[in-house]
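Whiteboard transcription, Tuesday session. T.W. wrote the structure tokens on the left side:
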């Protein structure tokens, strides 16, 4: 049997799911459809099948520690985590994975999955995956076409052609169709020959590279250069920045699938959703008797067909119908369900105004744990630091701020210049401006610190690192 290599593309930003999804913590890293995150669900989607290799994950450099930690939590050790210095759409991401795998196995058979899709019927997906992989073994570039359940205008469509096999499980692609209007979508639904374009694929690495060379050689050339000049960095493979940034941005469909003669499609009916907007969360979740989906501390009166998510405090609704309400510590979204696609316009406006709410949550994740802003004012800032057992911040100094640390839970090992001290709960220390320092958690429980910063400049870029076990350099 040919080994099957799962390839997980985890480069999306999920702007339509703001304010839960942020640029530094996008939707694939969130638990939006169950207890596990969407990335974790994707990584376990092939469990139970034989001849499955460890996954190859392609993700943004900013998310590398989060991706690695989430895979570790479910006992998955990836074959590689390939880092993109910036997003260049799905075709370059897949090409990096194909280049990596073709070095390990010239006949590498890839099952390509997006990290931010929901599939409710895993058994049905695995059955369709077997059919797509059969087509891929024969040299086809197979995609999964979702059997439509409604006249959807938000997806592209695939028109099915002639069967590839006697059972008709896989067919040639007759045409890729752009997102239609309502009239066209209704015709497609009634005709039965059209499927939603899912963005999942089964193909051989060598076949992908061969077809990419024919259809879009500039992408292949840039990716080959970036990969060849890359380097292993601990658990990650870093491609060469400048070469990859010079790569054209294009999707798998536009770059190759719409141009190749080897495109095939396998129908899939498995409760699929790309969770592209808040309305999709409402559609794929369990509803109460009033058609509502409620998460967190919510009180709803005379409210129907509404999604309410409360992350930080009580949220009460009165007299709402077909609404979306999402509360986080630093932002609240209220929208009509029919306009949930337009949430991306909020993110665009936040970027234009130079605000930070599109980038990160109040709680910011770091490889050593996380920190959360509590209060701030002129010349001061208060944070809550949470350091994981055995973890440590870098040995560093600040030119413009001093720091006071108070231990509220656990034990802390503190480096202050040449001095190293151990602090327990309710003990504190002071780090003057310009002093080298490090904070470590030597214990086996979470270390919690209240940090009070004071000074003329409190930005996260006021940091000089001397040593860091996570191989970070200038980035905080």
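and on the right, the sequence the group agreed on:
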């Amino acid at each position: 049997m040919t080994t099957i290599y799962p390839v997980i593309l985890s480069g999306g930003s999920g702007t339509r799911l703001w304010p839960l999804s942020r640029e530094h913590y996008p939707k694939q890293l969130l638990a939006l459809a169950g207890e596990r995150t969407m990335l974790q669900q994707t990584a376990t989607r092939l469990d139970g099948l034989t001849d499955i290799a460890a996954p190859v994950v392609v993700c943004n450099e900013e998310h590398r520690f989060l991706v690695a930690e989430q895979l570790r939590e479910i006992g998955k050790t990836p074959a590689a985590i390939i880092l993109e210095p910036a997003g260049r759409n799905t075709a370059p991401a897949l090409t990096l994975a194909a280049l990596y795998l073709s070095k390990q196995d010239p006949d590498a058979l890839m099952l390509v999955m997006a990290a931010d899709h929901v599939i409710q019927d895993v058994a049905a997906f695995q059955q369709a995956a077997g059919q797509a992989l059969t087509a891929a073994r024969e040299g086809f570039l197979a995609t999964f076409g979702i059997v439509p359940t409604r006249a959807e205008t938000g997806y592209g469509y695939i028109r099915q052609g002639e069967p590839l096999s006697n059972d008709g499980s896989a067919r040639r692609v007759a045409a890729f169709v752009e997102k239609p209007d309502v009239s066209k979508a209704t015709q497609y639904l009634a005709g039965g020959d059209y499927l939603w374009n899912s963005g999942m694929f089964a193909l051989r690495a060598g076949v992908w590279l061969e077809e990419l060379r024919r259809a879009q050689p500039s992408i292949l050339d840039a990716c080959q250069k970036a990969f060849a000049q890359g380097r292993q960095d601990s658990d990650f493979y870093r491609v060469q920045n400048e070469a990859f940034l010079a790569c054209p941005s294009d999707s798998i469909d536009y770059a190759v699938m719409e141009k190749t003669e080897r495109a095939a499609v396998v129908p899939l009916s498995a409760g699929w959703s790309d969770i592209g907007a808040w309305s999709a969360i409402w559609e794929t979740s369990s509803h109460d008797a009033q058609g509502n989906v409620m998460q967190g501390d919510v009180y709803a009166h005379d409210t129907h067909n509404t999604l309410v998510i409360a992350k930080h405090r009580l949220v009460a609704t009165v007299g709402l119908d077909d609404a979306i309400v999402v509360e986080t510590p630093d932002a609240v979204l209220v929208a009509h369900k029919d306009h949930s696609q337009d949430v991306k316009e909020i993110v665009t406006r936040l970027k234009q105004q130079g605000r930070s709410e599109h980038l990160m949550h109040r709680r910011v994740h770091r490889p050593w744990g996380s920190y959360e802003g509590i209060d701030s004012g002129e010349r001061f800032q208060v944070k809550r630091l949470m350091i994981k057992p055995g973890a440590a911040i870098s040995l560093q100094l600040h030119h413009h701020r001093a720091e006071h640390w108070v231990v509220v839970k656990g034990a802390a090992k503190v480096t202050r210049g040449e001095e190293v001290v151990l602090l327990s709960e309710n003990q504190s220390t002071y780090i003057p401006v310009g002093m080298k320092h490090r904070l470590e958690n030597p214990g086996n429980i979470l270390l919690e610190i209240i940090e009070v910063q004071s000074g003329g400049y409190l930005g996260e870029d006021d940091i000089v690192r001397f040593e860091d076990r996570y191989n970070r350099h200038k980035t905080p």
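Someone added at the bottom: Residues 4-273 form a domain with the Spore Coat Polysaccharide Biosynthesis Protein SpsA; Chain A fold (CATH 3.90.550.10).
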